Amino acid sequence: MVNKGFPSFGMSQAGAFVAALKNYNLPDFILALVAKDCDSDLLERGRIDDRLQSMNDKALEVLHKVFVDCEEDEKGKFAQYRFFAYISSMYHKCEILINESIPGASGKNHKIPVAVKSNGMYIAIAFNKATGTPVQKREAEKFYAIADDVKKGDHGTMLADAVYGSSVGFKGDSLVTLEKLSKSRNKDPENKLEFKTANFENRIYSVTKC
Over its length of 210 residues, how does the chain's per-residue pLDDT go in tens digits? Predict the structure, then answer.
């Protein structure tokens, strides 16, 4: 399948983008998200280079900016794409769901940026701060409260991990707060939940365990 948009870029640039991107382990759902955002076609299955070649110029350019150049955009969308891919790499062969609504024990429905399912059960949830100031203490407390509510609810019985990513860093007191709250759960094995923080710097996410 030939990309109809190639002539506007010139084959050489689009071809260079495909050549670079096919070396990245880009999850299917990321290709689908970018294709949707860029009004692009996308082959449903097949080799990665064939699927990339089925995308339009705009989609290839966005993917290259996000994963090869590690650029930022004003809305923080590029950072979110990278975070989604990072979470996908942590949970192989699991289902990754974006902007999932999960009810907690309180009865409130929480909008979860990334939820991970295995065998139909939620095993992890993840948030990422893409823009603005470093993660503050009150944001860490809010994240903990959401994770705790989901864990205690009917859908949280198998929930094991809660990951907080940031492209803008963490304030020291936010990490201390999350660590204290996390350790306070360890006495109750039924309610155990692993809290992790992941910081994006030097073009990669690195996990700092709380």
Answer: 445 544 555 556 788 899 999 988 899 999 999 999 999 999 988 899 899 999 999 999 999 999 999 999 989 999 999 999 999 999 988 999 999 999 999 999 999 999 999 999 999 999 999 999 999 999 999 999 999 999 999 999 999 999 999 999 999 899 999 988 888 877 777 778 989 999 888 778 877 754
- Between the two ends of the chain, the Cα-to-Cα distance in Å is 47
What does each C-alpha distance from 111 to 23, 65, 104, 119, 157 come to in angstroms? 33, 27, 11, 21, 18
**What does pTM read for this prediction?**
0.86
What CA–CA distance (Å, rounded) separates 165 from 80? 10
**Angle at the Cα of 196 (from 31 to 150), degrees rounded to 5?**
80
3-state secondary structure of 86: helix
**Structural tokens at position 108:** 């409130």
The string over 121-147, giving b where at least 16 C-beta atoms fall within 10 Å of a residue's C-beta and e elsewhere, is ebbbbbbbbbeeeebbbebbeebbebb
Residue 116, beta-bridge partner list: 96, 124
Q: How far apart are CA 185 and CA 159, in angstroms?
A: 14
Measured distance CA(177)–CA(158) in Å, rounded: 24
| Residue 120 to residue 111: CA distance in whole angstroms | 18
